[in-house]
Structure formats: C-alpha cells, structure tokens
Amino acid sequence: MEPLPNPLIEIDHVTFGYDPSRTILNDVSLRFTRGQVTAILGGSGCGKTTLLRLIGGVYPATKGRVVFDGEVVDPRDKAQLYRLRRRVGMLFQFGALFTDMSVFENVAFPLREHTDLSEALIRDVVLMKLHAVGLRGARDLMPSQISGGMARRVALARAIALDPELVMYDEPFAGLDPISLGTAAQLIRQLNDAMGLTSIVVSHDLEATFRLADHVIILGPGVVAAQGTPDEVRASTDPLVHQFVNALPTGPVPFHYPGDDVKVDFGPVGMGPQ
C-alpha cells in the first residue's frame, strides 16, 4: 500500500508496554492523514486506547517516535505538551463531564483554561459550539439532568471548543441507543468536514464506524493486522481481520486468556486439584 499523503500524525516504529513483561504495541508504524476520519478497530486489549494516549503524550514510547505535525512528542516537555494539547480535542468514553458544572460551564472550561477571551466572547463561543451539537437550549442543565447521548454531545462541544486540528474519540458510541448512536456518528462526520478537522475514532461498533470512516486500521495483538478504505478492509483475507469484521467466535483471537495448562490447575481428569 502506498504511504498516505500529508500526515498530521505519524507513529514511527513505536513499541510500548505498561510493564516490561507485556508489550502492547510492537514496532507499529501508522500515518494519519489531515482532513480524514480514521477509525482504529480491534479486540479488547490490542492497544487502541493506548495509541491515543501515546499521541496525547500521556506516556512516552518505549521505542520509536510519535510525531505531531512534524514535531516529535516528548511527554517530559511540559511546555510542549501544553502547547500541542491546545491543538487537540479529546472525547473520552462516556463523556467525562464535570458533574458539578452545568452544560455551559463544561464547554467553557477549556476556553477559560487556555485563552484570555472575555466572558462575553466565551459565552458566544460556547453557545455556538452547543448549537453545533444541537444542545444550545440545554446550556443551563446539569449533567445529571441529561441523557447519556446528550452528555456525549456536550463532551463533543467541549472537545471542539478551542477549534482543534485533531479530535480523538475513545469509544464514542458505547452505551448509546440507535438514534443517539446515529446522531453521534453524523456529528463526527459533519464536524470533521465543516471544521477541516482530522479525526481518530476508536470503536467496537463496526457498522457505524465503517459508514463514518475514510480510512480503517485493524489492530491485532500489538501489530497492524490490516488498513485501508472500509471496503478494502472488509475484503481482507487475513484470518484475524475476517474473524473481527464478521464477529466470529472462533479464529486467531482466542477465547481463553493465556495461562498454565489446564492440568496444572485441575490435575488429571476426575482427580481434582493436585
């Protein structure tokens, strides 16, 4: 496959693990093209959210480089991280709203944290962002007074409050009813195109994500199993990709987590533990 043009993010031969005994990503290289919606799919524990954390500078790569717009991300450089994160919006799984702040105050928070805008300008920006996600009328409500789908849309308004270049979505469809899910997917696509964003979507929802994405990446255990357009990935003959895309219970991804041989725990059949 030809390299994707004009990348905003480059993952350059990255290896990472939370402890030395378990590697999560093993020599992974990826490029995220400007203006596209890129979906990252794969089984639980394959490194999808870990990849977002590396891009956001939460952790340093054990080996390799994470490059944002030509600049190597260094989690030890706090000034760099503060500057780069102003260019990134993040929608966390289940929204992660501040429960003691109103809808308005949640969206205003990054503007107050990162800018010197007047309160009058902050009000206008917040109302515009809430209007973009259909919730301008809910500005005075508390998170406890809105549904899960609405909370996700408020979190999206907060994620785009600073007009970022990159928005990362961690499981944006989890727990949503079909109408809320469809609304969230439509918003991600519309905002990406209208604002000229680059979007990275981590999800387990195959149908919604395949309809939404320009480029799809399937992660296997620590490696890239496949990538391409949604149609190209669906047509992949790789056994792991075929199992994942078709939701098959058997295949390269095992049901049992690796462990000792069953006889070690249970002993010979009929004899009980030894």
- Low-pLDDT sequence parts: none
Distance between the termini: 54 Å
The major beta sheet can be summarized as: 6 strands, mixed
The fraction of residues assigned to DSSP E strands is: 15-25%
Helix content: 25-40%
What is the strand tally? 10
Over all CA atoms, what is the radius of gyration?
21 Å
Give the CATH superfamily. Answer: P-loop containing nucleotide triphosphate hydrolases
In total, the number of domains comes to 1
**What is the CATH topology assignment?**
Rossmann fold
- Output the helix-strand order: EEEHEEHEHHHEHEHEEHHH
What number is the mean pLDDT?
85
* CATH level 1 class label: Alpha Beta
Number of H/I helices: 10
Structural class: alpha/beta
Q: How would you characterize this protein structure?
A:
With 274 residues, the protein is an alpha/beta fold. The chain has one domain: Rossmann fold, CATH 3.40.50. Helix content is 35%, strand content 21%. The protein has 10 helices and 10 strands. The protein has helices spanning 48-55, 78-85, 103-114, 119-132, 148-159, 178-195, 206-212, 230-234, 239-245, 262-266, and strands spanning 7-16, 25-33, 37-42, 63-68, 71-72, 88-91, 166-170, 198-202, 215-219, 224-228. The protein has a 6-stranded mixed sheet, with helices on both faces. The protein has a 4-stranded antiparallel sheet with strand order 2-1-4-5, with helices on one face. Helix 3 (103-114) packs parallel to helix 5 (148-159) and helix 4 (119-132) packs across helix 5 (148-159). The longest helix has 18 residues, at 178-195. The radius of gyration is 21 Å and the shape is globular. The mean pLDDT is 85.
